[in-house]
Write a structure and sequence with these properties.
With 91 residues, this protein is an alpha+beta fold. Helix content is 32%, strand content 29%.
């Protein structure tokens, strides 16, 4: 079996640059979601939660502050896992 690797032809392509920025932004974004132990705040590329709260409001306040400081995004999920709100603090 022969493995084929695709080469990027034009690294200055605006679509490629836009996609790369979106991926990096997603990794830096903060996520607030429900777990068995409470409401957790987690960075997009992290395996573990940075903090767990009993109250969703406290988790949102904490995550919003981190997102603002890192000029990244904030994703807030409902208890059922659906997306409730998305904020962008990169501007």
């Amino acid at each position: 079996m022969v493995k084929k690797t695709l080469k990027r032809k034009n690294l200055n392509n605006p679509q490629i640059k836009s996609y790369e920025k979106a991926v990096i932004k997603g990794r830096k974004s903060q996520y607030v979601a429900k777990s068995d132990s409470g409401w957790f705040v987690k960075r997009g590329d992290a395996k573990k939660a940075s903090r767990v709260f009993e109250d969703k409001k406290q988790a949102i306040i904490y995550a919003r502050e981190i997102a603002k400081n890192n000029t990244s995004g904030l994703f807030i999920f409902n208890q059922d896992g659906s997306l409730q709100e998305r904020k962008d603090y990169s501007k």
